[in-house]
Amino acid sequence: MTANPSSPLVVAIDGPAGAGKSTVAARIAARFGLLNLESGAMYRAFALKAIQTDSDLDNREELGRLAERTRIRLMPAPLGNRVFLDDVEVTKRIREPDVTAAASRVSVHPAIRQWMVSMQRQLGASSGIVMEGRDIGTKVFPDAQVKIFLDAAAEVRGQRRYQQNGPDAVPAEAVLEQLRERDRRDRTRAESPLQPASDAVIIDSTDLSLEQVVARVEAIVSERLAASH
Ligand code: DC
């Protein structure tokens, strides 16, 4: 990790679903005055477009053509990102289970990833950002000054997701099963699989509170900022 004082600060937070990335990213962005950008929301928005157009989620040519007529926009807000698909707000819709599963499927295709990576780099070109996702430290911003890989045991991540969703939604066992399936696909895809960058700080939050994780990441960012001045 190199700290170049002339380029805007980039904090990359990667890790599997349910590790707490979004909450930590929002807190770090607020603390250091950075834009908070959720790269997963972009994959989700594209997955929604694929669902709406009845596209084949495994057909890379069809999805490549669909990408050419798709516009995705993120608007950072205090509680996460507002997300627009072809200028229609889809912030809530993209969190539903069908979109969650489809996002993991459309994200395996190299052409879709390249398109996303170039949009994500543009978003980070002019101001300091916290970007969370799966390949931010390895692929999108390999020179990020801070790289965090946030992990936790699958059972704990499943339980957190279940509690976020509320008891009336999907049963806990099904949440864990879907999370394992998504983990498997995200970690084993050929293009940019989920894995820590060689220079990432790995934080296992299985036995840590949110406050403890935030405190650790804050300390790392402060240290890097001090070193670059
Ligand atoms: O972080 P999330 O749950 O919103 O991400 C949804 C899916 O998008 C995830 O299963 C894999 C994909 N994704 C990705 O491949 N690369 C990213 N940088 C972010 C998300």
> What's the SSE pattern?
EHEHHEEEHHEHEHHEH
Q: Biggest β-sheet: count, sense, barrel?
A: 5 strands, parallel
Continuous helix count: 9
Sequence stretches where pLDDT stays below 50 over 5 or more residues: none
Class based on secondary structure composition and strand pairing: alpha/beta
Q: Count the strands?
A: 8
Kindly provide the radius of gyration, computed on alpha-carbon positions and rounded to a whole number of angstroms: 17 Å
- Molecular shape: globular
Mean pLDDT across all amino acids: 93
Describe the structure.
By secondary structure, the protein is an alpha/beta fold. Helix content is 49%, strand content 17%. The protein has 9 helices and 8 strands. It has helices spanning 21-32, 39-52, 60-68, 97-106, 110-123, 136-140, 154-165, 172-188, 210-228, and strands at residues 10-14, 35-38, 72-77, 80-85, 88-89, 129-133, 146-151, 201-204. It has a 5-stranded parallel β-sheet with strand order 2-6-1-7-8. Strands 3-4-5 form a 3-stranded antiparallel β-sheet. α3 packs parallel to α5 (110-123). The longest helix has 19 residues, at 210-228. It is globular, with a radius of gyration of 17 Å. The two termini are 15 Å apart. The relative contact order is 0.22. The mean pLDDT is 93. 2'-deoxycytidine-5'-monophosphate binds at residues 17, 39-41, 43-44, 103-104, 107, 133-136, 182, 186. 2'-deoxycytidine-5'-monophosphate is lined by residues 17, 39-41, 43-44, 103-104, 107, 133-136, 182, 186.
